[in-house]
Specification:
By secondary structure, the protein is mostly helical. The protein is built from ten helices and three strands. It has helices at 2-17, 23-29, 36-49, 76-79, 93-106, 111-114, 116-126, 142-156, 178-199, 215-220; strands spanning 56-62, 83-89, 132-140. Helix 2 packs across helix 9, helix 5 (93-106) crosses helix 7 and helix 8 (142-156) packs across helix 9 (178-199). The longest helix is centred in the last third of the chain and has 22 residues, at 178-199. It starts with a helix and ends with a helix. It comes from Strongylus vulgaris (Blood worm).
């Protein structure tokens, strides 16, 4: 309960003072940093977890209202503010958030007001837009996905997201300094921006979503 109140206070302060990201990300937004350190940390993580599995990935939920239509001109300054949730998972995990939002929305649930993530999704849909879901860091182990997710949150900062808690550090990353963690997250955001430019915008509206992730299984087991 205390942690949730503290996070809420930080978000309110961010609204008042204006968004403040990690120093590493802000420097990258100004074009005043090299990606070499981030690349080095990426190589370390790949090597450490290369034999631990390949079923997980990370993903970003984005608000398309904050992204310019001209993707070629999109940069970190306009890309990062559009990110409102960072996650990791397997299979169709990203869609689970949207299906939950659709279900609670149709039921008129108070969660659509009290839950920051669901509230943002509802706002996007209410404006006639769809939520953008960008998958990154494919085919990694669960532990590696945890580290990558944690670094992304560290770079953006939790108070600028709708995540309830920060990420989890695994393996050698537990010994990293905060600047190293934020630098690794910044490097991933730079790569994610490239993925978005290549794949384009694919907004997801509620009418395109199934009632559940496994509708066929539900039919077999009513």
């Amino acid at each position: 309960m205390y942690e949730k109140k503290l996070l809420l206070m930080r978000r309110e302060m961010a609204d008042i003072k204006g968004i403040r990201y990690s120093r590493q990300l802000e420097m990258a937004m100004l074009g005043k940093t090299s990606s070499e350190l981030g690349k080095d940390l990426d190589d370390r993580i790949r090597e450490e977890f290369q034999s631990a599995g390949v079923t997980a990935f990370c993903y970003l939920l984005l608000d398309p209202r904050k992204i310019m239509e001209d993707l070629d001109a999109l940069d970190l300054k306009s890309f990062v503010p559009a990110i409102f949730y960072v996650g990791k998972g397997t299979k169709a995990r990203p869609l689970a958030h949207l299906i939950e939002a659709k279900k609670e929305r149709n039921a008129g649930s108070p969660k659509m007001v009290s839950n920051a993530k669901l509230k943002r999704i509802d706002s996007i849909w209410g404006s006639g837009n769809g939520v953008l879901c960008l998958q990154i860091n494919h085919s990694v182990s669960n532990d590696e996905a945890f580290v990558r997710e944690a670094a992304l949150i560290e770079a953006i900062r939790l108070e600028n997201l709708t995540n309830v808690k920060g990420g989890e550090w695994r393996g050698g990353s537990k010994m990293w300094t905060m600047p190293m963690r934020a630098q690794f997250g910044t490097y991933q955001l730079q790569r994610a921006l490239g993925v978005l430019k290549m794949e384009g915008l694919r907004p997801i509206k509620p009418e395109a979503l199934p009632e559940s992730l496994y509708p066929h299984a539900q039919k077999k087991n009513p």
